[in-house]
Specification:
Radius of gyration: 24 Å
Low-confidence stretches: 1-22
Number of helices: 24
Distance between the termini: 25 Å
Shape: globular
CATH topology of the largest domain: Peroxisomal Thiolase, Chain A, domain 1
Oligomer: single chain
Structural class: alpha/beta
Mean pLDDT: 92
Strand content: 15-25%
CATH superfamily of the largest domain: Thiolase/Chalcone synthase
């Protein structure tokens, strides 16, 4: 038995711990909510899908005459959510409204009002792909010379939905956003379940949301991927995909909570798997090898065999390459059982909901298990020799079985699969072997130059980077990366180029050789605050200036946040777990935490953890309009950075004789739960994160010698962190503030602190090395603290 970690309030009083949990708790689904083209709730979704009703029609919200098709899975009616969020000029963000509506239904469905669960034990993990349109609207109006509220910018990033949900329901535990493109919703369900199993939360709201946008129509049109008629997945004469929109949310909880509060269990989340194709930015591996690894990993994590699987909710987009590759993946993973399993595509009836697709399809999978009814693949016309499974054509069909899986595959070759069981299974999930996470490789590109030593020199001597521009208050990386990335970097956008450079240098520093034998056990976790700003702006400007026909098919695949991580997998051979974390300025720190959990749960032997952000003139202008360089932030400067860390299971690292820089011994993530763009000036959320990190490291505050603070010259935020450190770590002998000298590196701040802390230990910068704490906070009040142990203790 393992006891849930006791948190403490700002008055140093223990917070209530509801119960003592088993070491590997069962994670169950206790509530669902959805808004889709089929209707305004989960029941409407299921009723439409089970009956084979096609809810794809002419899009009416914006003009489509210039696009490849006028059809889409549009939500016909969008009510106003009960919970509100920050609205500049009274404007709303459709992606957030969709997510809130689905969450309100899921929370009500789970009867959460009857629970007695502290808000600190609630988490939020959401996925998205296209994101909100706020930043696009801000940029376009600004270019037109129109007055525009900069608050629109805050509604656009993937993290905005997570912050809105956290604020709406007062959930103060981990608050994360993932952006693995079309695999995001499935990825969010899996990570939410992991947070519960690892003891970071007792209940987590998970799901995804995405809206139809003109830019996606232009982009998929440029790829010639849109069907002129409702899509026909797996059918011989399929012509492409149909875009859709909507949201789905699920409430996950420990089984003990469901028993205690007599909550109906809809299904058990048995396990999930992630993988990378490492093949192409857009096209899947034609043999489905990467997707098959994700399916096999999910079955292994769930401790079920292919013979147990009765139904597969397929990714089934209706594109020629995807459907045939998925068919081979299912055959590869399920072997002889593939021929008897029922497979169907929900997208045939509602379109491809991008980042929300996996969450919506998870609900359909759960409903199918409950009713023992496989929904059909609608619009199915004729068999294709390349797609030779039983796709339940056009009419639903009964089945008998307790296990079903849901597949999601995405741009960049990111694959995700989740396994559900109809009831809580008698067999317990396997206990992963207990091993620590160690850091064996590091690389850094920063405003100081190339390498960790250059950055440490500025911090140690308290000198500001000479690359700062007093005019723009920004510093950009200037480095020749030819020797590192070579010819393969010629076609990469700048974010991907920097990410690949630090990934390769970190791998070399770790002495890690990645090949076909160990590549599937080496993953990539990428963290970014704003994603591919440079290529996204270029793509949008071309469409705005010259119309949809000018949409560049080479640019479009790189506007998703996970594109850089996908390029790293392609060019390094690291084809294990693959995910992208977008928790604002805390993204890189959260990526380290996720990598640690993936290793701890035996989903990988090593993870290449990268965090990077690049600046454009528009990005600098956006931060200026938001007041980042106001009188309250006289020293604040933005800076480009890219950090690469190699994290490994200690046993794997020692077996190959790797040098250990140190260990990630614990972490804490906490939300202020104040909504979009707001944080607690008292520092209470960060204090909880720090205390949790120390306690999960099995230490006390007196053991902390060094703090690597997240302050960067914004007085209100810096004072909040100072208060949190004073209350939680009164004996810390050193507090470093690297961002005052290197600039605020957006999402790369956490890994930057990790690299500097370990570099200090390696170079004798600490007389008595002890536990170090690295802090990062998003502008929306999500705080991440990472506890590090030096090599002498590791």
């Amino acid at each position: 038995m393992a006891e849930a970690t006791p948190l403490r309030s700002s008055r140093n009083e223990p917070m209530p711990v509801p119960v003592v949990w088993p070491a590997v708790p069962r994670v169950v689904v206790v509530g669902v909510g959805a808004i889709t083209p089929q209707g305004a709730n989960a029941d409407a979704l299921w009723e439409g899908v089970r009956s084979g009703r096609v809810a794809i029609r002419r899009v009416r919200r914006f003009a489509t005459a210039a696009f490849q098709t006028e059809l889409g899975g549009e939500v016909p009616y969008l009510p106003t959510p009960q919970h509100d969020y920050r609205r500049p000029d009274g404007e709303r963000e459709r992606m957030i409204d969709l997510g809130l509506l689905a969450a309100e239904e899921a929370i009500a469905n789970a009867n959460v009002d009857r629970w007695q669960l502290p808000p600190e034990r609630w988490g939020v993990v959401v996925g998205g792909c296209a994101g909100g349109r706020g930043a696009e609207t801000w940029l376009r109006r600004r270019l037109q010379g129109t007055s525009v509220d900069p608050g629109l910018i805050l509604l656009s990033p993937p993290q905005a939905l997570a912050d809105a949900l956290s604020g709406a329901f007062g959930f103060k535990g981990p608050c994360m956003s993932l952006n693995t493109a079309c695999a995001s919703g499935t990825n969010a369900i899996g990570y939410g379940a992991d947070l519960i199993r690892c003891g970071h939360a007792d209940a987590v709201l998970v799901g995804g949301s995405d809206e139809l946008t003109e830019m996606n129509y232009a982009g998929f049109g440029a790829l010639e991927a849109l069907s002129p008629k409702p899509c026909t997945p797996y059918s011989r004469d399929r012509l492409g995909l149909t875009l859709g929109e909507g949201a789905a949310m699920l409430v996950l909880a420990r089984e003990e909570l469901a028993l205690r509060y007599e909550i109906g269990v809809l299904a058990e989340v048995r396990g999930y798997g992630l993988s990378a194709d490492g093949y192409h930015p857009v096209a899947p591996n034609p043999e489905g090898e990467g997707a098959a690894r994700a399916i096999r990993a999910a079955l292994g994590a769930a401790a079920v065999s292919p013979a147990d699987v009765a139904y597969v909710n397929g990714h089934g987009t209706g594109t020629d390459r995807n459907d045939s590759a998925e068919t081979r993946a299912i055959r590869n993973a399920l072997k002889v059982d593939a021929s008897r399993v029922l497979v169907s595509s929900t997208k045939s009836m509602i379109g491809h909901l991008l980042g929300a697709a996996g969450a919506v399809e998870a609900i359909v999978t759960i409903k199918a298990l409950q009713e023992q009814l496989a929904p059909p693949t609608a619009n199915y016309e004729a068999p294709d020799p390349e797609c030779d499974l039983d796709y339940v054509p056009n009419r639903a069909r009964r089945f008998e079985g307790d296990i079903a899986i849901s597949n999601s595959f995405a741009f960049g070759g990111a694959n995700a699969c989740v396994v559900f069981s109809r009831e809580v299974m008698a067999d317990a999930l396997p206990m992963p072997p207990a091993e620590r996470t160690v850091v064996t490789g590091m690389a850094l590109l920063s405003s100081a130059g190339v390498g960790v030593e250059a950055a440490w020199d500025l911090v140690k001597n308290r000198r500001r980077s000479p690359r700062f521009s007093e005019t723009t208050r920004c510093a950009r990386i200037s480095a020749d990366l030819t020797s590192t990335v070579g010819r393969e970097g010629r076609r990469l956008d700048r974010l991907s180029l920097l990410s690949l450079a630090v990934a390769k240098d970190a791998i070399a520093d770790a002495g890690l050789v990645i090949n076909s034998r160990n590549g599937p056990r080496v993953g990539v976790v990428f963290g970014t605050a704003i994603g591919p700003a440079e290529v996204s702006e270029e793509f949008c400007r071309q469409v705005w200036t010259d119309g949809p026909d000018a949409a560049n098919p080479a640019l479009f695949p790189n506007i998703v946040h996970n594109a850089a991580g996908g390029h790293v997998s392609i060019h390094t051979g690291a084809v294990g777990v693959a995910t992208t974390v977008c928790t604002g300025h805390a993204a890189g720190a959260a990526a380290v935490c996720y990598a640690h959990d993936l290793l701890s749960s035996d989903k990988a032997d090593a993870v290449i953890c990268i965090a990077a952000d690049v600046l454009t003139d528009s990005v600098c202008d956006a931060y200026r309009d938001l007041g980042m360089f106001s009188s309250d932030a006289p020293e604040a400067c933005l800076a480009e950075s890219a950090v690469g860390l190699v994290l490994e299971r200690e046993g794997s690292a020692r077996a190959r004789g790797a040098r250990l820089y140190g260990a990630v011994s614990g972490y804490g993530i906490a939300s202020d739960a104040l909504g979009i763009g707001r944080s607690d000036a008292r520092g209470s959320g960060l204090e909880r994160a720090i205390r949790t990190a120390v306690e999960r490291a099995g230490r006390q505050s007196l053991d902390v010698e060094t703090v690597w603070a997240g302050c960067f010259g914004q007085r209100v935020l810096d004072r909040a962190e100072a208060r949190a450190i004073r209350r939680s770590l009164p004996r810390a002998s050193q507090v470093f503030m690297p961002r005052l000298f290197l600039g605020e590196p957006l999402g790369a701040g956490g890994p930057l602190g990790v690299a500097l802390a370990m570099h200090q230990w390696q170079n004798g910068g600490a007389a008595h090395p002890g536990l170090a704490i690295v802090n990062s906070s998003s502008l929306g009040g999500v705080h991440v603290s990472i506890a590090l142990e030096p090599p002498t203790l590791a």
